[in-house]
Automatic annotation (TrEMBL):
<dbReference type="InterPro" id="IPR001365">
    <property type="entry name" value="A_deaminase_dom"/>
</dbReference>
<keyword id="KW-0546">Nucleotide metabolism</keyword>
<keyword id="KW-0378">Hydrolase</keyword>
<dbReference type="GO" id="GO:0004000">
    <property type="term" value="F:adenosine deaminase activity"/>
</dbReference>
<dbReference type="InterPro" id="IPR006330">
    <property type="entry name" value="Ado/ade_deaminase"/>
</dbReference>
<keyword id="KW-0862">Zinc</keyword>
<protein>
    <submittedName>
        <fullName>Adenosine deaminase</fullName>
    </submittedName>
</protein>
<dbReference type="GO" id="GO:0009117">
    <property type="term" value="P:nucleotide metabolic process"/>
</dbReference>
<keyword id="KW-0479">Metal-binding</keyword>
<dbReference type="GO" id="GO:0046872">
    <property type="term" value="F:metal ion binding"/>
</dbReference>
<feature type="domain" description="Adenosine deaminase">
    <location>
        <begin position="8"/>
        <end position="289"/>
    </location>
</feature>
<dbReference type="GO" id="GO:0006154">
    <property type="term" value="P:adenosine catabolic process"/>
</dbReference>
<comment type="similarity">
    <text>Belongs to the metallo-dependent hydrolases superfamily. Adenosine and AMP deaminases family.</text>
</comment>
<dbReference type="InterPro" id="IPR032466">
    <property type="entry name" value="Metal_Hydrolase"/>
</dbReference>
<dbReference type="Pfam" id="PF00962">
    <property type="entry name" value="A_deaminase"/>
</dbReference>
<dbReference type="GO" id="GO:0046103">
    <property type="term" value="P:inosine biosynthetic process"/>
</dbReference>
Length: 314
C-alpha cells in the first residue's frame, strides 16, 4: 500500500500554511502580481523569519466570509486526497476579527459553519486549536476568547497553541492563562525547542503544563527533558520537512525523531505547513521511513495520532 492509502490524522497544521496554491490563485486579487514562487518554499531558507515570508500573503487572503470558506474547502479537499480523517487546524481568532472588522463571536461562528461543511463534504473531522502569540501581550483578549468558546459549547474548539518567536521574553501571565485553559478541558500545545532552546521546553512542560510540544528539537540532546516528556506522557509533534526548510535541522539523517524513537518518547508525524511546502503528510511518512528504515508503522502512527488528539478532552 502507498502511504496515501492509509488513514491518517494531522495534529500540527497551520491554517495559513496549508492553503493549496490552486486555492490561492482562485481567491487572490492578482493585481498584486502574485507568483507561485512567492508562496512555495522547496529548499532551505536562512532562518525561521525568512520561512514565515509566505504568511505576508496568506494572512491577508480571508478578508471576507466567502473567501474564508473557499480556503477551508481547498484545505479540506487536499486533506481528503491524502486520506486524512481527523485534523486539528491552528489559527488566530484575533487577527481574523481585525482583518474583517467583525467580533470574536462572529469569527467563531465562521469556524463552526466552515468546519461542519468540511465534515459534510469530505467526511473529515476538523477541529480548531486557537493560536496565541508569545511575543504579543494580548492576554486579556485570550481570556475573552476562552470564555466565548466555552459559551459556544462546540466540540470544534479543542485547544490552544502558544506560537511565535521563541527568542522573545515570556510574559508572566502565561502559566496562569494555561491553567485556566486546562481547567476548562482544553488541550495545550506549545511551540518549544524548535530553536533548540532547552529552557523553552522546560517552561512549556513545568510552568504551562503542555500536553504536547510542537517540534521539540532541543529535547533530543537533553536527558532531563527526555525523561520529563516520558514521565508526563508529553507527545512531540514532529515536522520533518519544516525543520529542514527552516534550517533548524541541517541533516535530515540525524533528525531528533531518531532519539524520540530510541527512548520511547511519544511522537506523531505532522505536516506543519503543507501548502507552503507543497508536500502532504504522506510525504512525511515516506521521509520518516527513509530516515529510520522503519516500515509498517502507518497503522500504529494513526493510533498514536488519535490517542493524543485533543478531541479526547472534549
Amino acid at each position: 500500500m502507498k502511504y496515501t492509502d492509509y488513514d491518517k490524522a494531522e495534529l500540527h497544521c497551520h491554517l495559513n500554511g496549508s492553503i493549496p496554491i490552486n486555492t490561492i490563485l482562485k481567491v487572490i486579487d492578482n493585481k498584486c502580481g502574485f507568483k507561485e514562487h512567492d508562496y512555495i518554499i522547496d529548499k532551505p531558507v536562512k532562518n525561521l523569519s525568512e520561512y514565515f515570508n509566505p504568511w505576508k500573503i496568506t494572512r491577508l487572503l480571508p478578508h471576507n466570509k466567502n473567501i474564508f470558506m473557499a480556503i477551508l474547502d481547498g484545505i479540506g479537499r487536499e486533506m481528503f486526497t491524502d486520506n486524512i480523517k481527523y485534523i486539528e487546524l491552528r489559527n488566530s481568532i484575533i487577527y481574523l476579527a481585525k482583518l474583517n472588522n467583525i467580533t470574536y463571536d462572529e469569527v467563531l461562528d465562521w469556524y463552526i459553519e466552515g468546519f461542519e461543511a468540511i465534515k459534510s463534504e469530505y467526511k473529515i473531522d476538523m477541529r480548531l486549536i486557537i493560536s496565541v502569540r508569545r511575543e504579543i501581550n494580548e492576554i486579556n483578549e485570550y481570556y475573552k476568547i476562552l470564555d466565548l468558546i466555552k459559551k459556544k459549547n462546540s466540540n470544534i474548539f479543542v485547544g490552544f497553541d502558544l506560537t511565535g518567536n521563541e527568542t522573545e521574553v515570556h510574559f508572566n501571565e502565561w502559566p496562569t492563562f494555561f491553567r485556566r485553559v486546562k481547567e476548562n478541558g482544553y488541550g495545550i500545545t506549545i511551540h518549544a525547542g524548535e530553536s533548540w532552546s532547552d529552557e523553552n521546553v522546560r517552561y512549556a512542560i513545568t510552568k504551562c503544563k503542555a500536553d504536547r510540544i510542537g517540534h521539540g528539537l532541543a529535547i533530543a540532546n537533553n536527558p532531563e527533558l527526555l525523561e520529563l516528556c516520558k514521565q508526563n506522557n508529553i507527545c512531540i509533534e514532529v515536522c520533518l520537512t519544516s525543520n529542514i526548510l527552516t534550517s533548524s535541522v541541517s541533516d535530515i539523517s540525524s533528525h531528533p525523531v531518531l532519539q524520540f524513537h530510541k527512548f520511547n518518547i511519544p511522537y506523531v508525524l505532522c505536516s506543519d505547513n503543507p501548502g507552503i511546502r507543497n508536500k502532504n503528510l504522506s510525504f512525511e511518512y515516506e521521509l520518516f521511513e527513509t530516515i529510520t528504515k522503519i516500515s509498517n508503522f502507518a497503522e500504529g502512527m494513526y493510533e498514536n495520532q488519535l490517542k493524543y488528539a485533543f478531541k479526547n478532552l472534549r
